[in-house]
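Subgroup meeting minutes
Present: P.N., E.W., G.H.
Scribe: E.W.

1. P.N. recapped why we're keeping a running log of single-chain structure predictions: easier to compare across weeks, and new members can see raw inputs and outputs side by side.
2. G.H. added today's entry (89 aa).
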Amino acid sequence: MPQLQAHCKELTKAGRSANCRKFLNNLSQLLNSLCLWARSDGTGDNLTTEQRQREAKLLSYNLKKLENVSESRKPASWSIVPQSDSTTT
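Output recorded in log:
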């Protein structure tokens, strides 16, 4: 009977090993993510100069797109410069 138990235990060894590796990899990924998150103070100092420039270009591009969309949908009465009312003069 002990030989049968040892044999059964040996059969599941590869599966248990794979599950342990998967768990440890997921745990490592989680801890790395938490470390990166904890180090970030929101200033973007974790980015390289090239990454900051790319982010700035992307933000600028998206802002221009947003402004163009809002301008094209804005009614004529939404003027930034106040219009004089002909009924009050």
